[in-house]
Each structure stands twice: as C-alpha cells, then as structure tokens.
C-alpha cells in the first residue's frame, strides 16, 4: 500500500466521523426548528380563523352559532385541516370531515392524536363563543424535513467528495519528493555511491537523505577498503608463492650447500605464507560477531603459557607482570591470545636486537589493560601507518597485518589502543578494555 493511499485512508474515517457528528447535531437542530415553525403556523392559523369567525359574527350574528347549516368539504390530501365547533360540541365546519374526526371538545393548546392510523399535530384555541382546532399530518412534516435535509445534503456531499479529491492530489504533490528519492535510489547503478542531491521542502525528508548519503559514504569506504585489501592480499600471497617455486626450482637443479640454502629459503617463504593465511583467517573471523559475544570463562595464565609455547619463548625472555584475576570473562580467549601473540611478535620483529620486552596486564573494577613495551627506532610516518593493513616499513619483516588485526579486535571489543613513543627509543602499545562501559575514567 502506498503512503499516499494510507494517509488518505487515515484522513477519510476521521474526517467522515467528525462530519457525521456535526451533521447529526445540525439535523437534530433543524428538525426541532421545523417542528417549532410548524407549531407556530398552527397557532397563527388558529388565530386567523378565530378573527375571521369574529368578523363574520359582526355581519351575521348567527354565523358560527347555529349548526343548521354546517360547512363540510372533502378537504385536500395535503395542507392544514380546520375544525370549528360550538361550545356545546356541535361541529360548525370541518375541512376534512372524513379524516379529521376529533373529539368534540379539546383543551386549549397542542396535542398529538392518532386517527385511523394517521398521526396529527393539533392546536386548539377555545374562545368564549367557539372552539377552533387546526391540525396537520405529522407525515407531511416528516416529508418536508426529509426534503430539506436532502436539498442541503447534496451540496455537502459534493463538497465532501471534492475535498477528498483535493486531498488526494495535495498528498500526491507533497509526497512527490519521496517518489523522487525512491527513483533516485532505484535507478542508480550498484557502483554509483555518490551523494543524493534532491531539491525539496520537506523537513522530515532531510534526515532521511542525510542518513542515506552517510550510508553511501560508509559503503564507499568499505568497498574501497575491501578492494585495497584484496589487491594487497593477492600481492602478499603471490610473493611467498613465487619465492617457494623459485627456490624449489633452484633446489631441483643444485646440490650441496646451494640446495640446502634453497630449501631453507623455501621453508622460510612457506612459513611466511602460512602466517599470512592465518592472519587473513583471523580477519575473516572478526566478521563473525557472534564469536565475540558468546564465550566461556578461561584461565589467563593458561592462555599466556599457550602464547609463549606457540612463539617458542620462555617467560625469562619477556618481563611479564600480571595483576589480574586468573579467571577472565571480559573477552573471548582466542581474541586475548591473538592480541598478545601479535603484540609480542611485533616487538620481537621490529624492536632493537636483544632489547628487553615487557608485558604488563592489569585489571581493576573499571578496566582491563594490556601494555607491551620494547625499544625501537621509529619515524613519525611509521607511527601514523602502523595499523594500516599490509603496510610496513621498507626494511621490516612480516606481512603488515599484526597491529592491524590487534586494532580490529580491540575495536570489536569496544576497547581503545594507543601508541606511546618516549625519548625516541621506548615504544609502547597500550590497550584498554572498559569493564563498566566507559573509557573516560
């Protein structure tokens, strides 16, 4: 269902309900006024007939007193009926003798009577000389009321229908920017992520277009990042594969030390390729948000031991300080393992030879922190690009994914990672995970 039709279906019942209520009170008021006007007509007619009778008495004293010559008429199908009686109850005149068979004497005032299934509205005027009753069929009043209602309802109904037609076209005109926005989005190609430029005067539409443009901007960044990632990954995978193939070809045609050297170089390239694939798989695993949300408690010391065993290190090589609960449930075990392993590998590969490396893990009520420090000579350009995927200094080893993976995991866990470079020789990676949802403490 279109928004235009839905709005009309909302407006129509409300408008109709209010119109029916107003019409009901108007019709009720109209009916009361018609009855009042008709009653006033009965009173006026009775007084007029009374005046005519009195005038006739002045010229003919016996008129209206003698009943030897009563006036009878068949009457008409519509209109007022009149009955004149003497004080003793004798009928002097009756305009509808076959229909208006009223009692001989009626009290003065209004009354409603039913004669042979026909309801009459009667007004009786009693004078010292005679009694005059003026009657009107209630069905005639009802017919007049219906005619007046129909005459007034027809223009109202036409105005009602015209109003809905006007509302329909007005809604279409005001909602045209939504149609233009829909067309602007549906007609563009999947590769077109340029901001939407649409002229409109709807205040409510501006946030929608702004959010859509922000989404296009984010999508464009994601696509560019993924393209760059794919290109870099293809290049990085090609390099060790080419090295392995070349060295194996050399080993095939050589003997002795040259062959051993080629095999060792092949093993080095294969190890580098394995590491690169593992890191790519870690990045892919990061996209699985469920893995970061559903996990069991794990032992911090056991995970540290696993990391040192995997790196073929002993805790004598690293200055380790742990001030945290052995049981951890702040993050998945694989995330902690990956972060620590990549930080230590980064310090071993890019730090100064034989320089001391420290690992400090602390836990408070508000935060869980990890800090790795080593000695290194770094440039400002290197510090700016450390977390960029596949970036590394020209003389550096590795594949440029270590700190990028750490940064990705830290962001996924709502943490913060900072680099501290002191005295141009001590480089620290400082990671904070909030335990109370706030990093400002």
Low-confidence parts: 62-76
Helix content: 40-55%
Shape: rod-shaped
Number of strands: 13
Biggest sheet: strands, sense, closure? 6 strands, mixed
Q: What is the N-to-C order of secondary-structure elements (H for helix, E for strand)?
A: HEEEEEEHHHHHEHEEHEEHHEE
Strand content: 15-25%
Rg computed from alpha carbons, rounded to a whole number of angstroms: 51 Å
Count of the domains? 3
Biggest sheet strand order reads 1-3-2-6-5-4
Average pLDDT taken over every residue: 77
Count, helices = 10
Q: Which structural class is indicated by helix and strand composition?
A: alpha+beta
- End-to-end separation in angstroms reads 51 Å
What's this model, at a glance?
The protein is of the alpha+beta class. The chain is 54% helix and 18% strand. It is rod-shaped and about 160 Å long.
Explain what you see.
The chain is α+β, with helices and mostly antiparallel strands and 441 residues long. It has three domains: 3-161, no CATH class; 190-287, Helix Hairpins (Orthogonal Bundle), CATH 1.10.287; 295-434, 2-Layer Sandwich (Heat Shock Protein 90). It has ten helices and 13 strands. It has helices at 3-59, 138-174, 176-186, 205-253, 256-286, 289-293, 300-310, 333-350, 380-385, 402-412, and strands at 71-72, 81-86, 91-94, 109-115, 118-126, 130-137, 298-299, 318-323, 327-328, 357-363, 367-375, 416-422, 426-434. It has a six-stranded mixed β-sheet with strand order 1-3-2-6-5-4. The radius of gyration is 51 Å and the shape is rod-shaped. The two termini are 51 Å apart. The model is unreliable at 62-76 (pLDDT under 50).
